[in-house]
Amino acid sequence: MRLVVAGSVDDGKSTLVGRLLHDTKSILADQYDALEHVSRNRGADGFDLALLTDGLRAEREQGITIDVAYRYFATPRRSFVLADTPGHVQYTRNTVTGASTADAAVILVDVRNGVSVQTRRHAAVMSLLRVPHVVFAVNKMDAVEWDQARFDEVVADVRRVAKRVGLDQIEVVPVSALTGEGVAAPGPDWVEGPTLLSLLEQLPARRSLTDEALRFAVQLVLRPRTDDHPDYRGLAGRVGSGTVRVGDEVVAQPSGLRSTVAAIDGPRGEQAEATAGQSVTLRLADELDVARGEVLSSAQDQAGVVRVIEGVLCWLSEDAGRDRQRVLVKVGTRVTRGLIGPVEERWHVDDQRWDRDAAPLELNDIGRVTIQLADPVAVDGYAQHRHTGGFLVIDPDSGVTLAAGMAGGHLGEPQLMI
C-alpha cells in the first residue's frame, strides 16, 4: 500500500512517520545510533523520531519537512511505501506529488488547534486526487491528557470538512505520535476501534489496475533493422492498466488505427500476456503509423479523444497563470501545445466552496479551467482512470511544471465529465 502523510506545520507528521518506522522495527541499528547522537547534539531529551524522515540539512536545521521523504516499512500483514509531505503552505505542491499515486492518506490534526486551513486544503487535494482511503489522525492527545470531549469536538469539525470536499468514507483516530499511544500501542479505555497501524493494515486494497480497461502509452518505436530482425517494429511502453494478450484487438488513439497484437516481448523474451505495471514491447499484426504519444486501448473500452480538456488545476508555480497563456500539456507520453482559458471557478479553502472568481491562479490555488489543445489527445476522466486522466501543464520556455491537472475533476460535487 502506498501511503501519504500530510498535515499542517508542527502537527507531528515526521514524528508519526518515525514512530511507525520505530514500532515496526524498520530502523537499522547503525541508523538508530547515528540519529540518537544527532538528537543529543540538538539538545533533545530522547531520540527525536522526526529525524528518521527529515533528511535534508535544511530540514534538520529548521525542524521542518521541505521535500517529500519516502520510507518503507512492513508489518506481518502488509508492506507500505510511505511519503512524508511538507506542511508549509508554500510546499503544498510537494503534497500533490506525494499523494498523486497514494492508495491511502493520513491527515494529521493537532488536537489543541483543531482543523486548520492546511487541513481543509489537504482534504481537498486528497479528494481531487481520488485517494481511495483517507484517515484523519488527531495527534498530540497526550497534550490534552486524552480529553475525550475535546477529541469529539475535533471529530465533528473533521467530518464537516470531509463532507464539503466530497470525502464520504473517512476514519478518525486519536493518537500520540510522541508516546506511541493510538499508533501501534492501544490508547485509553474510552478509545473505540483499532489503532492507526491496525487500521492501515485492514484498509481494503485498491482495485487492481489489472481489472481496469487496457491503457498502454507508447514511449518509443523500436526499429533495430539488424540482420536477425530486418523488419522488426515494436511499440515499447508500460502497461498503465488492464491486460494485453497476444491476439487481442487494440485501437491506437488518438489516430484511431486498429490492429491485433501479434507478439509481446518482455525482458526475458516473448510472453503470452502483459499486465498493469509491466514494461514490454508490443508487435502489431499491421504496419501502422503509430508513434510516441499514442495510447493503445482495448477495442471494447476505448479512451476518449479530445482537443479541449475541461478539468481542475492545482497551480504549482510561484508565477501566476495568465488568461490565454501558451503552455505545453503533457498527457501520458504525449506533449502538445495548449492555450489556457480563463478561470471558470476557484476553490476557496476557507469557505470550502466553488466561487466564480476569474482572477489568475496563483501558487497552491485550485481552479476549474478549459485548455485548448493544438492536437487531439487520448484522455479519460480522472475518476475512471488516474493514469490517463491526469496531466501536467508546463512552461514552454523554462520547462518548469506550472500545474497538475485532473481531467473532469471532482471536489465537493458529482464528477464532471470531459
Strand content: 25-35%
Biggest β-sheet description: 6 strands, mixed
- The unreliable regions are 56-66, 413-418
Give me the Rg, rounded. Answer: 24 Å
Enzyme class: transferase
GO biological process, one term: sulfur compound metabolic process
GO molecular function: ATP binding; GTP binding; GTPase activity; sulfate adenylyltransferase (ATP) activity
Protein name: sulfate adenylyltransferase
Can you characterise this structure?
- By secondary structure, this protein is of the alpha+beta class.
- It folds into 3 domains: 2-202, Rossmann fold (3-Layer(aba) Sandwich); 210-298, Translation factors (Elongation Factor Tu (Ef-tu), domain 3); 304-407, Translation factors (Elongation Factor Tu (Ef-tu), domain 3, Beta Barrel), CATH 2.40.30.10.
- Helices cover 19% and strands 35% of the residues.
- It contains 8 helices and 23 strands.
- It has helices at residues 13-23, 29-41, 57-62, 92-99, 117-128, 148-164, 196-202, 386-389; strands at 2-7, 69-74, 79-84, 104-110, 133-139, 170-174, 215-222, 234-241, 243-245, 249-253, 257-266, 269-271, 273-275, 279-284, 295-298, 304-315, 326-331, 334-340, 345-348, 353-355, 366-379, 390-394, 401-407.
- Strands 2-3-1-4-5-6 form a 6-stranded mixed β-sheet, with helices on both faces. It has a 6-stranded antiparallel β-barrel with strand order 7-8-14-11-10-15.
- The longest helix has 17 residues, at 148-164.
- The relative contact order is 0.11.
